[in-house]
Design goal:
mainly beta, 5-stranded mixed sheet, globular, Nuclear Transport Factor 2, Chain: A, 4 helices, 2 domains
Length: about 270
């Protein structure tokens, strides 16, 4: 197996941040088409029609999509949608029922998230490749796991307990906690530092990654990237108006691996 069991649709989906269900407040002319596109995409995965699913991928992501291992799903259900403030991007959390050979033959409900953006009149899926998905072995929140890249499909998974607890939406989301999802600098005229804490509540090591684009005037510093079980890691967000004066709201994005959980921190001025 070239990737971890939690990434059952390989690069097609990365599981989400702690989503706010903003779909109800989104303009119907954007929310309706997004739901239709998401449903159509996952329907192709349900039918095993992976080639037809290509039409929903943005051009930048197609090479990743072609090279990714693709798993057929049994069923799916859209759970939540978190929109960007301009409603031109969204993280969609979907519960997919599928069989993970390494975890047995019983179907599992696995939380998966995909990042969509509105471009040229259509919603398109954008893919990211977190570094952890490239690894053949890692210490997972479910226990220490080793993956033999030459194992046949359905091959045996070895772990400390020789088995892994099947993931669910609830169990994956409970493996970490972010103490703040919004911070405010009292004035845009004075420099300052705000701190966000990420706690590892799982039984294995988590890895914290920043997916934030560079924002002039803001500097994001991770105290460390690996979070041991029970440990809390700080994210320092420093503002320097001498670099650029900022006003309004800005969104910072992060990924927790190997559980592929994305979360956002909003910065207000």
């Amino acid at each position: 197996m070239k990737i971890a069991a939690l990434a059952v649709l390989a690069l097609v989906c990365t599981a989400p941040l702690s989503a706010q269900a903003l779909g109800a407040s989104a303009p119907p002319e954007l929310d309706g088409p997004l739901r239709e596109r998401v449903a159509a995409f996952y329907e192709h995965f349900r039918k095993g029609e992976f080639r037809q699913a290509e039409q929903y991928i943005d051009e930048e992501s197609k090479d990743l999509f072609y090279g990714a291992k693709k798993n057929r799903i049994i069923n799916y259900e859209i759970k939540t949608i978190e929109y960007a403030e301009d409603f031109r991007a969204a993280d969609v959390l979907v519960s997919c029922r599928t069989i993970i050979p390494m975890l047995g033959s019983k179907p599992l409900d696995v939380p998966l998230s995909s990042n969509w953006h509105y471009s040229d009149g259509d919603w398109l899926l954008h893919l990211n490749e977190p570094e952890e998905l490239k690894q053949a072995s890692f210490t997972s929140p479910f226990g220490s796991m080793q993956f033999d890249q030459n194992l046949p499909e359905g091959g045996r998974l070895e772990s400390q307990q020789d088995q892994v607890k099947p993931p669910t939406i609830e169990s994956v989301k409970s493996m970490y906690r972010v103490n703040k999802q919004a911070i405010r600098f009292p004035t845009s005229r004075a420099a300052g530092i705000q701190t966000v804490e990420v706690e590892n509540r799982s039984i294995g090591t988590l890895k914290l990654e920043s997916f934030t684009r560079e924002i002039e005037g803001l500097k994001v510093t991770l105290e460390k990237t690996e979070i041991a079980p029970g440990e809390t890691v700080k994210i320092d967000i420093a503002y320097d108006p001498q670099v650029k004066v900022l006003q309004g709201r800005y969104r910072l994005e992060f990924m927790v691996m190997p559980i592929t959980q994305r979360f956002s921190v909003f910065v207000d001025f």
